[in-house]
Amino acid sequence: MSIKDWNYPIMVICKRTGKVYTVGTAKDALDMLLNAWPVAEGKAFLMALQICADVESGHGHPLEARNSFMAAAMEAGVPIETTMVQQH
Description:
88 residues, 3 helices
């Protein structure tokens, strides 16, 4: 596992096809935002693009990318499933 990996991936459900995608890194999130996202606007979307790109280039924390991706999903109405278990 890379230091850039998210401890708890996010499952993204495509409304159109029902297909489930696993997003587990800032790179995965950035790819999805750029290539498969239903909207290309909105404050959370633009913030997620920037944060995911920053984390992928070594700046910022992977949890920031994960949180911004979840916010973009909420903004766009993209169904996701996630579990976030506290680490001990």
